[in-house]
Amino acid sequence: MNRHGKGYGEGEIIKYALSHSRYLADSNAFIKCTGKLWVTNYEKCLSEWNGIFTANAHFSNVFNLRSTKIEYIDTRFYLVDKKFFLDNLLDAHFDYGFEKKISIETNFLTKVTSLNLKKYIFSIQPVIEGVGGGSGTYYKNNLKRRLKYKLKKFILKNSKRFQDLIYS
Questions:
Q1: Smallest Cα–Cα separation from 129: which of 116, 119, 139?
Q2: What is the C-alpha separation between 27 and 150, in angstroms, rounded?
Q3: What distances in angstroms separate CA 1 from CA 60, 107, 111, one per listed residue?
Q4: 2 has pLDDT over 60
């Protein structure tokens, strides 16, 4: 991580899979989920697939909408059109490094924002469980956390500033 930055290995693994997998070669789209994690509400998330790129995003200051902003795209789990990924996100893990304190998640957001995509953020919270590869953190979305996410998504979906970004 110190040499290349957070997400470099993730990007290299996806790049390798896209150039070596027979399954991905025959596919028009793919779902990325970080190893050792799973999404328990996968079907609900899939129903919000926009055909290009759909992911979750982290917002800061949601309970104060005037200062709310998107911080980064959550790259633990997303749905993506393969051509879109190859044209726009394939090298998102390059050009940042540890010293700049910019991650693959930030680069995904920068790229998606520059393309002016609409309705690319899940309106529901993907319920992610398992062990995070980089941190070793065990993810278990308890009821309190899920309710907090639901409230945040409700606020964001009903905000004029973000309604074009969140699936509805």
A1: 139
A2: 33
A3: 25, 16, 22
A4: no
